[in-house]
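Protocol step 4 of 6: structure prediction from sequence.
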Amino acid sequence: MANAVKEAWKAGKAVVNGWLAIPNAFSAEMYSKCGWDSVTVDMQHGVQDYLSCVACFQGIQPSGAVPMVRVPWNEPGIVGKVLDAGAMGVICPMVNTPDEARALVQYCKYPPAGTRSNGPIRAGAYGSSGSYQKTANDEILVIPMIETKTAIENIKAILDVPGIDGIYVGPSDLSFSYGKEPKLDVEDPEILAIYDMLLAETGKRGIAAGLHNGSPAYANRMIKKGFKLVTIANEVGLMCQAATAAVKAARG
């Protein structure tokens, strides 16, 4: 099956990505029907485990949103399992060097392009024979997170690693790494200049740049700036914001 996010990027379009911290298929099902182009299960800072990731994928599937995962670390076991579960994109935290980027590509791709083990229990129509293995290397998105000063210093070498489809900027950790307050929706001139540099370097290579955002307005601003994937908080944050506003409105 063609990856709709990859197709959008080829057409020069940006995508709006949802983010799931809650380990529940029902909330994933309801949330994914809200118009997101893709929905990412957060196994790093969310309270998700592997079984809840599979359940969330089952909830996402009817919506047609592209299922992705932020894995907890750059490690072949969990990368392979989320891909077998049906992830069409892997976002990996703390990729700081070209060697780490190459390792991520290896974990995500079948031979000869990589070292992923064969056994797509859910991705391949629940283990039946099919065409999944023939298209997986082309359709799965490999997206390292760029979120440290070290990664910025190595960015050209990281972006030159074959098989990288995009990068995903973690503003809080990036700011932290530069001795600044960890936050989303950054206005610090030094960090914004880094964003401009990342957009220029990814643009030269035809690689998409993604960013985690705290608000819809900032996400829209970043799309206009050139980012091709924007996430807005997560479902917990959006739910709590709406609930807080509802309570305040009810109390007048």
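Step 5 (inspection) to follow. The chain has a mean pLDDT of 97.
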